[in-house]
Amino acid sequence: MIILGIDPGSRVSGYGLIEVNGRKFRYLDSGILKFDHIDSFIDRLRVIYEETEILIDKYQPDEVALESLIYVKSVTALAKLAQARGAMVAALKTTKSFEYSPNLVKSTVSGHGHASKEAIEKVLKMTLGDIKIRRHDESDALAIALCHVLLRGRNLAPRERKNSLRNLR
């Protein structure tokens, strides 16, 4: 089974793929999708949709895990992030999709809900091998995928299930 983790963004998004075979999992690929070279936000949304669609077509993941929206101080930034995330979700079409809160991802992967980016990257390298992580968006996406792998099929407490893990399809 192939799990795709996505760290959504309106300018840069990270993606990470993990293959799961029983209790074993291995790193397949990761990277970033850059959209910041497109000035018009409406045009950027179209490209976000298209690039996500290409990613889905290329890797054919069985399930996709995304980070849920986070609190930001700027309402404008939140609105743009929500729209970018919506374009990504639309591109997933019938792929089974889930979302996880940032704190649930961090606590599942590292054991601490407020772990630093460096701590998350260290756990990822210990778990997935000596992988080359170029940007935090990429490591965030891999952490989201790993979180999904670790929580997949578990019975979460009602509050966690309601607020942190949602089946988007």
Sheet with most strands: strand arrangement: 3-2-1-4-5-6
Mean pLDDT: 89
Quickly give the CATH architecture: 2-Layer Sandwich
CATH topology: Nucleotidyltransferase, domain 5
Number of helices: 6
The low-confidence parts are: 157-165
- Tell me the overall shape: globular
Number of domains: 1
Strand content: 15-25%
Give an overview in words:
With 169 residues, this protein is of the alpha/beta class. It has six helices and six strands. Strands 3-2-1-4-5-6 form a six-stranded mixed β-sheet.
Features:
169 residues; alpha/beta; Nucleotidyltransferase, domain 5; six-stranded mixed sheet; 6 strands; globular
Summarize the structure.
With 169 residues, this protein is α/β, with parallel strands linked by helices. It is built from six helices and six strands. 47% of the residues lie in helices and 23% in strands.
SSE layout and pairing:
Layout: E1 2-7, E2 12-21, E3 24-34, H1 41-59, E4 63-67, H2 75-92, E5 96-100, H3 102-110, H4 117-128, H5 136-151, H6 158-163, E6 166-167
Parallel strand pairs: 1-4, 4-5
Antiparallel strand pairs: 1-2, 2-3, 5-6
Helix pairs in contact: 1-2, 3-5, 4-5
